[in-house]
Amino acid sequence: MEIKEEGASEEGQHFLPTPQANDTGDFQFTSIQKTPNEPQLEFILACKDLVAPVRDRKLNTLVQISVIHPAEQGLTRYSSTEIVEGTRDPLFLTGVTFPSEYPIYEETKIKLTVYDVKDKSHDTVRTSVLPEHKDPLPEVGRSFLGYASFKVGELLKSKEQLLALSLRTSDGGKVVGTIEVSVVKMGEIEDGEADHITTDVQGQKCALVCECTAPESVNGKDNLPFLNAVLKNPVCKLYRFPTSDNKWMRIREQMSESILSFHIPKELISLHIKEDLCRNQELKELGELSPHWDNLRKNVLTHCDQMVNMYQDILTELSKETGSSFKSSSSKGEKTLEFVPVNLHLQRMHVHSPHLKDALYDVITVGAPAAHFQGFKNGGLRKLLHRFEMERRNTGYQFIYYSPENTAKAKEVLSNINQLQPLIATHADLLLNSASQHSPDSLKNSLKMLSEKTELFVHAFKDQLVRSALLALYTARPGGVLKKPPSPKNSTEESCPQDPPPPMRRQDSIPHHSDYDEEEWDRVWANVGKSLNCIIATVDKLIERDGGSEGGGDGSKDGEEDPSLVDSIITHPREDWYEQLYPLILTLKDCMGEVVNRAKQSLTFVLLQELAYSLPQCLMLTLRRDIVFSQALAGLVCGFIIKLHSSLHDPGFLQQLHTVGLIVQYEGLLSTYSDEIGMLEDMAVGISDLKKVAFKIIEAKSNDVLPVITGRREHYVVEVKLPARMFEALPLQIKEGQLLHVYPVLFNVGINEQQTLAERFGDVSLQESINQENFELLKEYYTIFMEKMPPDYISHFQEQNDLKGLLENLHQNIQAKKRKNVEIMWLAATICRKLNGIRFTCCKSAKDRTSMSVTLEQCSILRDEHQLHKDFFIRALDCMRSRQTQGALSESDDPETGCLTDNKPTSRHFYPVALLLVSSHLEGCRIENVLKNIKCRKYAFNMLQLLAFPKYYRPPEGTYGKADT
Ligand SMILES: O=P(O)(O)O[C@H]1[C@H](O)[C@@H](O)[C@H](O)[C@H](O)[C@@H]1OP(=O)(O)O
Questions:
Q1: 717-761, pLDDT tens digit by residue?
Q2: Where are stretches of biased composition, namely Basic and acidic residues (predicted)?
Q3: By alpha-carbon position, which residue is closest to atom 11 of ligand 1?
Q4: Catalytic-role residue among 843, 859, 879, 936
Q5: Ligand 1: does its nearest atom lie under 6 Å from the Cβ of 365?
Q6: Which residue among 73, 196, 570, 573 is the one 20 to 30 A from 57 at the CA level?
C-alpha cells in the first residue's frame, strides 16, 4: 500500500532571487546568518525506536524533507535521505543542505516524513536479461511511518543546535519513534567522540556535537567572488560517514557548471576569425602568380572566405546564448554548439575528517572533446591528420610539400613579423621623439628598446625555410620556370612504394633553382642589421659629443656601420639630433619593409601549399581540430582557474606553477570500438594540442574577470585575471607576466560492453599506444619537476610520496595489457593529485560512466586518505550515486520511467532555471547530472551492459535503466 500525505500541495521548489527573499509581500522574515556562498543551513538526521507497522518485519527507512515557506501554506518537497535498511534506529549518511541562494528564514518550517520502503529496487527497469515470464515485484512503494516538524529558528537556537522530535502518525496521535536533527558546519573541529559507531546498522549511533572554526585554506572565502564569476548553478549534497576509528567525517559534494563553457569558445572563434582574415588578406597580397598557382590561390580564397563566414555564423549563434553555462549531452551533435564542451562541471568533494585538515578534491568532468556533428565514420583527428599528411606528401608535381613542422614554422614567423614590425616602428618613432627633445637618457632608453626588438626581428628570419620559400615563390611567379619540378620523387630520401610509410619528418619537396640569386635575400636581410648598427653608432657619437668629451672617436665600435655615414655626422659641429637620426630611421624602416614584404609573401606561399592540397577537406580538418581544441581548452581554463584559486595560499604550488608548470591529467573511459574510436582519436589530438597553451596571470582592472585569449592556432596565451590583493601576493615571476605552461596527459581505459567487444573481436592498440605515449610524457614532467623544484621541497616531497614507485607501477600496468585495467586510471589520477595537477574525467557524455568513475574516486580517496570505515565503502559509493526512489519524485515525474514529463526545457539544450533549482536538492550530485542532461534520473545502463563493467563501476539498484539519451 502506498500512503499519501494529506494536505500536502506538492510543488517544485521555487527559488526567489536573493534580493526579493526577505520581502515576500507584507511579511518580514528573519534571515539566517550566513557566510557568503556557503550553504545557509546543513543538518543530518537519525531516528530512534521506530515502530514497525507489521511485527517482525525489518524496517527500511528514508526521510523525506519538505519545506513550508512562512508566507505560504503549501508544502514543497525538498530532498530525501538514502534508505537505511533493517533497523529501527536508522542513522542517515545523506544530510540536508540549503544553499546560499535558497529563501530560507528562521520562520521557515521543515517537515520530516519517515517512510518504510518495501522495495527499493522496483525502479530499476527490467531489461531483456530478465526472464520474460518474470513479472515486476508485486509489492512496490513505501509506507508512511510518521512525521515531525520544526521551525528553522528553533533548530538554530536549540542547545547544541540539536533537536530530538517525536514522530507522530498522520492524525497526530500516536508516537512512532524519535527523529534527531543536528546542525552541521563544514570545517568545524570535531569535539565530541562519535562513540559506539558500529558497522552493524542496528547499533549505529550519531555524533551530534560540533564546534565551529572554519579553516581558511579550504574555504578560501576571499576567492569566492571570483569563482562565482566562473562557476554557476551549484548542486550540493551533504554526507557523513564513519571512520575506521569510529568517528564521523563530513563530506560535501558539489557540482557546478561554468560559464567558461561558452566564454572560451567565443573567445577562440573570434581569434580564429581574426587569424584567418589576416591570412586571407596575405594570400590576396601574394602578388602576381603564374596561371597554375593563381587559379589555386583563387580556389583557396573562395573556400577560405566561406570558412570565415561559417565561423562568423557560429559566433553569432553562440553570442545569442548570453549567460549560458551548460551544454547538455543531448545537444552534442548540434552544429552551432560544436565548439562548446559537453556537460562540463566542476565536481568537488570537501572533506572534513577528525584529526586531519579539511581537504578539497576537484575533478573536472566533461564529455570527451570530439566533433560529434562531423561524425566518426572516417575516424577521428589522430587518424585523419596522419592520413592527410601521408597523402599530401605524395601528391607529386601539383604542390610543394612542406612538413607540418615547416608549415607551423611559417605561421610562427608570419605572426612574429606581424607583431614586431609595428613595435619596431613605434620604438623608432620614440627614438626620434627623444632626439627632438635632446634628452640623452631618453635617447639611450629608446635605443635599447629599438635594438632589442630589431634583433628579435632579424633573428626571426634566421631560418632555412624563408630562403627555400623565397625560391619556391620565385618559381611560381610568371616566367619563373622551374628547371627541376619539385617532387618528393626527386628527393634523395625518396622511399620506395613497398617501404613502410616514411616518418613524418621526411624532407620537404622544396625546390632548388640554379638561376635564383639567393644572396639577394641575404643582402636585404642584412641591411636591417646594418642600419640598426648605424643608428647605434650615431647615437653613441651624438651623446658623446653632447657630453663635451674630447676626441671624435672612429665611429666603428661595432665594426659594421657604414664609415661614410658616421663620418658625415661627426663633422657637423652643432648637431640637431633629430635631423641626424631621421634619415637613418627612414632607412631602417625601408629595409625592414623590404624584408617584411619578401618574407611575408614567401611564407604565405608556404601556407598556400597546405591549403591548396585537397580542398575543402583540408579546411574541414582545420575546423574539426578547432572544434575539438575549443572544447578541450574550455575545460582546461576552467580547471586552471579553479586550481589557481584553491591553491593561492600554497607557496609550493605557486613556485611549481612558474618553475615547472602544471600537469593536467585526463582520464578517458571511451571504448576502442565503433564510434568511440573516432572520439578517442579526436580527444587524443585535442588534449595534445593543449601543449600550445600558456597561461599568464594579470591584475584585474575591472569587474570583468573573465579570461582573455590571445595568440594564434600554434600558440595561445590565456590571461587569467586576479584582483589586486591576490595578485600582489603572487611570486614576482608570475606578477611579471611569466608564461605558465601546462603538460597535458591522457590515459584511457574502456570499461563498458563495447570495450569487451573490442577486446574480444576488435583492436585495443589505440588505447595501448595512447597510454604508452602519455606515460612517457608524464615521466618527462616528473623529471622536470624533480630537477626544477628546490632541493628542500623535493626531499620533503619524497618523504611523503613514493612517486617513483607509483610511476613504475603505472608503467607495469600499461605494459601488462590486462583487460579493462582500471588500475591504470587510479594510478594516473593518484600521481596527478600528488603532483598538484589538474584532474579531468571524461567519457562520451560525462554523465554515466564518468559519474561512476568520479564517485568511485571520491570514495577511494575517503578510504585511502581519510580512513573511511571499510565496511562503509560500498554504502558511501551507493549514497553518492543514488537517486530518489519513485515515491519521492515530484508529481511532474513520470513514475514509470523516472523521467520528467513537464517542466519542458525552454530551449533545446539548456536546462530551464526553474527545473534546475527544483532538482538541485534531490539525491547525489551525479544523478542530478544525468537529470540535467536527459531529463531523467537514471543512469543510461542496462543490466547486460553492467555485467560487462568492472565491479565498482556498477551503480546501485534502482538508479539505472532505459533512458532516452
Ligand atoms: O555518459 P556516457 O557514459 O557517455 O553515456 C552513455 C552510456 O554509458 C551508455 O550506456 C548509453 O548507452 C549511452 O550511449 C550514453 O551516452 P549518451 O551520449 O547517449 O548519453
A1: 999 999 999 999 999 999 999 999 999 999 999 999 999 999 998
A2: 1-13
A3: 940
A4: 843
A5: no
A6: 196
